[in-house]
Amino acid sequence: MKLSNATLKDLPDGVIVPEYDRSKLTPGIVHIGLGNFHRGHQAWYLHRLFQQKLCMDWAIIGAGVRAYDAAQREKMAAQDYLTTLIELSPDSRSAEVTGSMIGYVPIEEGNGPLIEQMADPAIRIVALTVTEGGYYIDPATKGFDSRHVDILHDAANPGSPKTAFGAMVAALKLRRERGIGPITGQSCDNLQGNGDILRQTLVSLARMSDPVLADWIAAQCSFPNSMVDCIVPATGPKEIALAREIGIEDAVPVTHESFRQWVIEDDFCAGRPDWDKAGATFADDVHTYEAMKIRILNAGHQVIANPGEILSVETIAGCMEHPRIGALFRKVALDEISPHVHAVPGMTPEAYVDLIDSRFSNPKIVDTTRRVAFDGSSRHTGFLLPTVRDALAKGGQISGLALVEAMWARMCEGTREDGSRIEPNDPFWGTLTIVAAEAKARPMAWLEQKQLYGDLVDNAEFSDAFTRWLTVIWADGADTAMQAYLQS
């Protein structure tokens, strides 16, 4: 059955469908970045509110700023912006069609339609999922990268920007001029202090062309920090076939695990949906939740994905099944990461490691190693290196963390141990492969990338451990290196 408003009543028994009248929904949110994670996470929470006949004036208008977003828009429009979510547990599956998205802004150069949509008085939140590396952060200083070519373009052409942030600044300028009022900017990406980072990006960009507007944004808009969590693989032929097996023809279905978590700082300048009534948590101390998730789950993904790529293990569940990669995750997480993570209500770091072990090991979630290993230049610096610094400062263990960094350096050389080629998988892949090749003979070349490691290159304990592990990996293989660490 082709998915559409008209066919909802005819979908197979057992499929949960919207019980609300979608024609009565009105928009309140523009969400930029309509990938699988947003549709399986934030959009689901809103859908569940609508199922309770609550907050019906907060529907989502989707948006994107890249040319490839146009294809996604066409697919979504053809099925009335509905999404089939397929929950995959180790021993069961279920399907639910969500209807919280009611439109998708046309993709145009200069982003005029997006700017006007965000300037609509009905819109009170602009949310984003644009990946950790999408916020124009200088990796060396962690400040705003005002020299990036996209940023320089938007500062020079504020009325026809390239980036999501330039479009937001342009829309806020219109709202201020028209007396409409501010909006909440809500980052839903895996960044610690994601709201603070979004504020930094918007205010800094605005200041490059309109300092008065920048001051208004800083004073009037709000940027709540949040922690988001749900494993949502990319969609490919297998996922489309799975939807058809259930009885639904959906061009862009989403598979996901049974676990979801969303912890949000309650700082919304123009109102918000009651997401807590659908299972989200509003909390003052989002940082502690963020730190646990980012340092164990997100960092844990990098712990296993890099050796997985080197050893040609295709999925995250396959990595966990591997006798040494799965064990590497547990030992690094328990011995070297958990000591620097605080408990949150109802969850100790050690219990969280067990939870993540179980989630990573779910064989029904076909999350590719390649997807998880993407953009290591952002993910290692954001997820792993803060723990390295904490451990060094407190006299903690760092041998396994140094091994993980050595695995990344080996992966970035661009070949697997079976001789196959690793396709480019990082925005800075060209540079990384050159340095990784040099590091094969001189490991310190890798740590001398100041934009990634800063002064860690000068720390003898870390650099000596890294050098030792990378030498072992190249001489004897990743498996041998992991075995040596596990026996230490």
UniProtKB/TrEMBL annotation:
Keyword entries, A-Z: Oxidoreductase
Domain called Mannitol dehydrogenase C-terminal: residue spans: 285-471
GO molecular function, one term: oxidoreductase activity, acting on the CH-OH group of donors, NAD or NADP as acceptor
Transmembrane feature ranges: none
InterPro entries, alphabetized: 6-PGluconate_DH-like_C_sf (IPR008927), 6PGD_dom2 (IPR013328), Mannitol_DH (IPR000669), Mannitol_DH/Oxidoreductase (IPR050988), Mannitol_DH_C (IPR013118), Mannitol_DH_N (IPR013131), NAD(P)-bd_dom_sf (IPR036291)
Domain of life: Bacteria
SUPFAM superfamilies named in the record: 6-phosphogluconate dehydrogenase C-terminal domain-like, NAD(P)-binding Rossmann-fold domains
Descriptive protein name: Mannitol dehydrogenase family protein
